[in-house]
Amino acid sequence: MDRATGNMKASANLPNDADAAAAAKQHSVPHRTRIKLCGLSKPEDVAHAIDLGADAIGLVFYPPSPRSVSVAQAVELVHDVPPFVSLVGLFVNATPDWVREVASNVGLTLLQFHGDETAEQCESLAGVAGLPWLRALRVAADTQPADLVESALKYSAASGLLFDTHVEGYGGGGKVFDWSLIPAELARRAVLSGGLNAQNVSDAIHRVRPYAVDVSSGIEVAGAKGVKDHARMAAFVRAVRAADAE
User: Fold this and answer.
1) Closest CA to 191 of 53, 37, 41, 84
2) Which residues of the chain fall short of a pLDDT of 70?
3) What radius of gyration do the chain's Cα atoms show?
4) Can you spell out the DSSP letters for 77-126?
């Protein structure tokens, strides 16, 4: 066999670009969007979230909120939460004493600051609890991608950034913001929130590719803040998993 023939046969055995891409896709680990179900206030809701495979349970420790729970309620809620399910405590302009009381009694694994806390205040409060933290960034109609990049740099010590719609007061208002405002370089740190539900979360995941999604009002009985609908909880989780599989 001459050299030319040998080279031709060797080339024939090499995968082309399309074959290589297909093989890489076949053996790559599929993306799995993490799911946080927030504002839970009843043991049966927490149990259902766990059965659905939620990655994180969100508990609200902001008394003015209709979804807020007391320390005693929270202790009951987390009693049977298994390992590897994160317990996230949401705080709004909280005092160090309140964060310390909640964290020491409830067994939180992550703090979420949703008020006017500066980066220094977030780090100080997290230090009191000895826990990592998320910073909620509220996206308004006039927010620009550069504003979010600047905020991300300011809160660089945060474990992640939760993007929510800017509304009057604090906490989510069940409203969607323009997802295209989130720069692609922030997607890996992004927890996408703000008006998500089973009908729109697939589109949100495809457009943003966030690390996680966070839902509260989108899994509630219509018009009943804080009252979770188990069918809507299940539909939301199914929609996220379907989006990951596409």
Assistant:
1) 37
2) 1-29, 168-174
3) 22
4) HTTTPPTT-EEEEEESS--HHHHHHHHHHH--SEEEE-SS--HHHHHHHH
Which residues lie below 8 Å from residue 219, measured CB to CB, with a gap of 6+?
37, 197, 228, 229, 232, 233, 236
Residue 122 annotated among the catalytic residues of the structure: no
Which tokens sit at 66?
Answer: 């209709």
Helix axis angle, 230-245 to 201-208, nearest 10°: 40
Identify the three-state secondary structure at position 221: coil
Strand (E) or helix (H) holding 200: none
Residue type, 160: G
Q: How many Å apart are CA 56 and CA 129, to the nearest integer?
A: 18
Active-site residue 164, yes or no?
yes
Euclidean distance between the first and the last CA atom of the chain, given in angstroms as a whole number? 47
Catalytic, out of 2, 17, 19, 38 = 38
Q: Do 165 and 196 meet the contact criterion of CB atoms below 8 Å apart?
A: no
Residue 11's pLDDT is: 42
Q: Do 47 and 80 contact (CB within 8 A), yes or no?
A: yes
Q: What is the CATH number of domain 34-245?
A: 3.20.20.70
This prediction's pTM: 0.86
Q: Considering 45, 122, 164, 214, which one is annotated as catalytic? A: 164
